[in-house]
Design goal:
Number of domains: 2
CATH topology of the largest domain: Aminopeptidase
Distance between the termini: 26 Å
CATH architecture of the largest domain: 3-Layer(aba) Sandwich
Largest sheet: 6 strands, mixed
CATH superfamily of the largest domain: Zn peptidases
Number of strands: 18
CATH class of the largest domain: Alpha Beta
Strand order of the largest sheet: 1-2-6-3-7-17
Strand content: 15-25%
Radius of gyration: 23 Å
Number of helices: 14
Structural class: alpha+beta
Length: 447
Amino acid sequence: MADDNALATESTELLRTLIRNACVNDGRVTSGQEVRNADALEDYFAGSGLVCERYVAAPGRESLITRIEGDDPSAPVLLLMGHTDVVPANPAGWQRDPFAAEVEDGVVWGRGAIDMLNLTATMAVAVRRLRASDFRPRGTLIYLAVADEEALGTYGAGHLIEHEPGAVRADYVITESGGVPIPTSSGPLLPLTVGEKGVNWRRLVVRGVPGHGAMPFRTDNALVVAAEAVRRIAAYQPKARILDVWRRCVSELELPPEVSAALIDPERVLGAATRLEPVSLARVVHACTHTTFSPNVVHGGVAVNVIPDRVTVEVDIRALPGVGPGEVDAMLAEALGDLAAQVVVESQCSEEGSLSSPDTPLAQALARVATTLVPGSRVVPRLAAGATDARYFRWKGIPAYGFGLHSPRIPYAEYPLMFHGNNERIDVESLRLSALMWEALCREVLG
């Protein structure tokens, strides 16, 4: 018990340090400044015998790697990957300062507490403990604390894959998203993320004719056209697609037969999601069965008394695996209808979705370890709605998964609301479980 308490305390304090460093990534090359968390992690590993390598993609945008080399070149290489950046937070919506890393009643509050500094910290703790122990693996363990995950990985995983492939060459990868227990009558389900949707960001440019705001009659107001375009995109619902991974996930949820049948029926799943409570689960169901369109940013106008002649709308489109960029653009044109001729569509990002097999030796070992730590649980594969750095490795044919191990302290339905939302937090018991899981998994997989 004393060792467990020490493990929880060590993980908690490292997480608090990473939160306080406030490596906020707003998409600009000058933001993030993950060098602060790279420094903190190198300080944490100091004196352990672990040697750190630093990779700089741009000033302040640093990733850190340390490794425990195996003695058998034919044994697998496992990469534990945690990102060190976080998205912005508006303190006005939080119950606590999002960068103070306060701990109250066994819960750590702060931006990045679940996305994903909790896992970045617990992975580091596990690696340090392994290095200090009798661990002499056959296979090699790599720990990667990577920059820029929150802005598509250009200065992080994408940079490493393109410019430093040898540093991150691995047979298996594990990163964020998964392991939050879903209660069922026969025991908790632990989701294992085996794939994710493709990021397809589009900018819509609407042009009009400027004029005096005091005389709006029969003018060509770009904002009015853009507003209708936004309305149509927000209302658009492409036909649902039911993937095998979704069927497998639903089959394990132990729902009433009529509900399960609706959730895997492309003609009925939208209606089922509309009626589903809580809303966080409805969002997950919809995102896992549809390519989604979310108009999120608008720029336009120069003064209140000038009719705008140019407005841009940025749309976050997430495509299901198997839906390519060309099909995305066709859907967008369908959503716009007769407005498509008045809108210029610019592609900001076009990516394919990605999937890994849920039946690899690593996935099987992870299930054994997780179910040992959480007796009565079952690991079930799932698709993630958001993007992670795992996609860079899946595109290269490397099995990559998202997981962690969480206690039931925070209800599972609250997690989807905390990612990029207010009041992000993680309980200390989840930190302890994740650190134990990483250490046990490395021992099992690497020998």
